[in-house]
Design brief:
This protein has 791 residues and is α+β, with helices and mostly antiparallel strands. Helix content is 32%, strand content 25%. The protein folds into six domains: 173 residues, Rossmann fold; 114 residues, no CATH class; 113 residues, Topoisomerase I, domain 3, CATH 2.70.20; 120 residues, Orthogonal Bundle (Topoisomerase I, domain 4); 74 residues, no CATH class; 112 residues, no CATH class.
């Protein structure tokens, strides 16, 4: 028997094997074998597959009447992800050889690494084994060896706080599917057949972009004019209490030129910016025409080849070991991306960027350094070239010196309330390597960057300004907003952003045009439905994280905190209903009232009595309470109904299971005759009925269209299984029986089939006009058809 070390993914397993001496073997007297997951091997099943069969129909339908869900109804059943059967088979075999199973998945703040390990153990049935936990700061050789030697004993899945909090978050997000159903129902009630997907991150994105888009679109420029001074070095001097005027002519000319007084000089410095995360990297690439989904897929390929580090990290710093691993590669990386190695003089770890905690470390170059950016582009395309260039320069900037500048402050001598600030660069430092904010411009209070500093004399002038227009939403803007509110990680923001902006999706929430971001149709409807809702609250993630901390600490249970979701669903149904009414009024949409539903126990259901719900309206007629009771009792009912052609008929039927586009549903099923009687206005004779039942085809020219009332001809047969007449309007093999309300004789059809042209009279067009024409039966547009000629 051996100790089985379970890594989160193949790349981590390779690092484990490298540190311990191979995929299997003995490390300091302990026999081991390294196994690997591939992320989440399992996912929750659909809601209707998680409940008792008597509730399945209720949980499958998207009707508001079926919300909220009761978490106690759900078994939290899982099913394998796609394309992981081989991984599961290998894992099961390896685990079977172990007497100790080691959790060596990532140590995520969210507990995700523990969750994906335990869900695999749970589904494969390996509870009761001896478990331990490897706790490592990174995947360096030293960290892995130390973690293996000092692995912590684990009693059970439920004793692990990281598992408990991660399972709660996973269950909460699953229950949040109800909010998608609410929003979608409101959309359909407003006559729009859209699926409006909601979630903690999706809804936050929609709310932020929608609000900012509204602010941007409703901006009204309000110009103002004000006295200011400017010196010969273009430094501006302002007085914060100086009056502003609506018109230039209103500004009093009360100032005269004056000398400038230098008040102070101070040397200042700024350290390199933090390393790029996946969201900030993707934001920069969007500005260069690279979509977020391409960034994700390209980065993943580069990671698998060890050209860059793990993409989905939540770390913002790297560990000392990770710093040491990259140190020998720095000059080589610099040469690849065209950075002067002479600028990289800060070759000691910065406490702001290197910390002794983390897992994968922040995004950075990988251990395999390409020979050139051209090589990167040949293998990974333009996106790969940009990814490596930015990621490498971001890291190299941390090895450059601080940016140094002298800040000069002064005022106008005659009017000392007018103050100016100039920043004089002294050493570019890291800014000569990589500046992620280049082009953004400094804030007004930061002062004017000038190589000359403050001037000697200042001239008064009338400054024309205006209220600042809100920034147009962009990916970069959105990612900053989400980061400020601590909603999601850089990786989850990027993957969710890619999902909601995917122009190939059926219902995208956001659209990108260049750098600009706007609401798509589904996004705008969501934005109008979200105000005041729980799912749309930007503080929702903070609430979920607080719950996770309480559950991890044992101050609460997942069941307690999940119980409130039902109340939130009820609240959001009411809130979205109010918002939907306002939305319809503002957009000119009409409310579409859905059919009422009947509920009860269907006594005659397949497999025995079960609780069902079904539409109370059929063919324009609502069932009475007495009829509903009879249907649930398994009885057959009859009533007068209206056909789709608007003609009255007697409908007879019972409750049954129907099929609509592959989806099974319970509802009133019309009883159809066991034999053909009539079709399209023509009643079949007993002889014809016998022939149709025997499988023969019947040809006639006196069928009548219910829609137009016009006579037409075709061949019909009887589908015994479906119990319906099946028409055949002819094929390329032979001419039709009639055309434009004229029935052909057998001789005419024979001539047409032989390729002859025949004279025809009394044809009636679709517009009801009579005409004569010479007609032939020939191929036109890839298909044989009647072709008329005139004159």
């Amino acid at each position: 028997m051996v100790t089985v070390v379970v890594a989160e993914k193949p790349s981590a397993a390779r690092n484990m094997a490298r540190a311990l001496g191979g995929t299997k073997g003995s490390y300091k007297g302990t026999a081991y074998e390294v196994a690997s997951l591939r992320g989440h091997l399992y996912e929750f099943a659909q809601p209707h597959a998680m409940v008792d069969s008597s509730l399945a129909d209720i949980y499958q339908r998207w009707d508001l009447d079926n919300l909220p869900w009761d978490p106690d109804d759900l078994t939290w059943k899982r099913e394998p992800q796609k394309s992981v059967a081989d991984v599961i088979k290998t894992l099961r075999s390896t685990l079977g050889r172990g007497d100790e199973i080691v959790i060596a998945t990532d140590l995520d703040p969210s507990g995700e690494g523990d969750l994906l390990f335990w869900e695999a153990i749970d589904e494969l049935g390996f509870h009761g084994r001896r478990f331990s936990r490897m706790e490592f700061t990174d995947e360096s050789k030293v960290s892995i060896q130390r973690a293996f030697e000092q692995r912590r004993p684990v009693k059970s899945m439920q004793d692990e706080s990281d598992y408990r909090k991660a399972m709660y978050r996973s269950q909460w997000d699953y229950l949040s599917m109800q909010f998608t159903r609410i929003a979608t129902a409101m959309s359909r009630q407003s006559g729009q057949n859209l699926v409006l997907r909601q979630g903690r991150l999706k809804s936050a994105m929609v709310s932020l972009v929608g609000d900012q888009q509204k602010n941007y679109d409703s901006y009204v420029k309000e110009p103002f004019f004000q006295n200011r001074f400017r010196d010969e070095n273009d430094v501006m001097y302002t007085n914060p209490v100086e009056s502003r005027f609506d018109l230039k002519g209103q500004v009093p000319g009360q100032y005269s030129p004056s000398a400038v007084v230098l008040v102070s000089k101070a040397d200042k410095e700024t350290a390199p910016p933090r390393l790029l995360d996946l969201a900030s990297l993707s934001s920069m690439l969007v500005g260069k025409g690279v979509k977020a989904n391409l960034t994700l897929s390209t980065y993943q390929k580069m990671y698998e080849d060890q050209v860059v580090s793990y993409p989905r990290t939540a770390d913002k710093t790297i560990t000392p070991e990770q710093y040491k691993d990259l140190a020998p590669l720095v000059d080589k990386i610099a040469a690849v991306v065209g950075v002067d190695a002479g600028l990289l003089t800060h070759r000691r770890p910065r406490s702001t960027h290197v910390k002794p905690q983390g897992a994968h470390g922040a995004n950075r170059p990988g251990p395999k350094v390409p020979s050139s950016l051209d090589e990167v582009e040949r293998k990974y395309g333009k996106a790969g070239r940009l990814i490596y260039g930015m990621l490498a320069k971001s890291y190299l900037a941390t090895l450059a010196e601080d940016y140094l500048y002298e800040q000069q402050k002064g005022h106008v001598e005659k009017y000392p309330d007018f103050v100016g600030i100039a920043n004089v660069p002294k050493s570019s430092g890291w800014r000569a390597v990589f500046d992620p904010d280049i082009g953004d411009g400094p804030a007004e209070d930061d002062g004017h960057e000038s190589g000359k500093g403050l001037g000697r004399n200042a001239e008064p002038f009338i400054f024309e300004g205006a209220n600042k227009r809100p920034e147009h939403p962009t990916m970069k803007w959105l990612m900053k907003q989400l980061e400020q509110r601590d909603v999601g990680t850089g990786a989850t923001r990027t993957s969710t952003y890619s999902e909601v902006t995917n122009d190939r999706a059926r219902y995208p929430l956001l659209t990108e045009k260049g750098r600009k971001l706007r609401l798509a149709q589904a996004g705008e409807m969501s934005w109008r439905l979200l105000p005041g809702t729980r799912i749309g609250a930007l503080g929702l993630t903070e609430k979920v994280y607080a719950d996770m901390r309480d559950i991890a600490a044992g101050r609460a249970t997942a069941e307690e905190r999940l119980a409130v979701v039902a109340d939130w669903v009820r609240e959001d149904i009411a809130t979205m209903a109010r918002n939907a009414a306002s939305m319809r009024a503002e957009l000119g949409l009409k409310e579409r009232v859905g059919a009422a539903r009947a509920e009860g126990v269907w006594q005659d259901a397949p497999g025995g009595p079960k609780r069902v719900a079904f539409k109370k309206l059929w063919s324009g007629r609502a069932f009475s309470d007495d009829e509903v009771a009879k249907l649930l009792a398994g009885e057959t009912i009859s009533f007068e109904a209206m056909s789709t052609e608007g003609k009255p008929f007697t409908a007879t039927g019972a409750l049954g299971v129907g099929d609509y586009k592959g989806r099974k549903f319970v509802g009133f099923q019309l009883k159809v005759p066991d034999r053909p009687t009539k079709w399209s206005g023509r009643t079949f004779t007993p002889t014809e009925v016998t022939a149709l039942l025997a499988g023969q085809a019947l040809e006639s020219a006196d069928f009548v269209s219910a829609r137009t009332g016009k006579t037409f001809g075709c061949r019909v047969s009887w589908d015994a299984k479906a119990k319906k007449i099946v028409p055949d309007f002819g094929s390329d093999a032979e001419p039709p029986q009639s055309w434009c309300q004229v029935t052909f004789t057998d001789a005419q059809r024979k001539d047409l089939a032989a390729g002859k042209i025949i004279e025809g009279t009394g044809f009636v067009s679709a517009q009801g006009k009579t005409f004569d024409a010479r007609i032939s039966w020939k191929t036109e547009g890839g298909k044989k058809r009647i072709v008329p000629t005139f004159g």
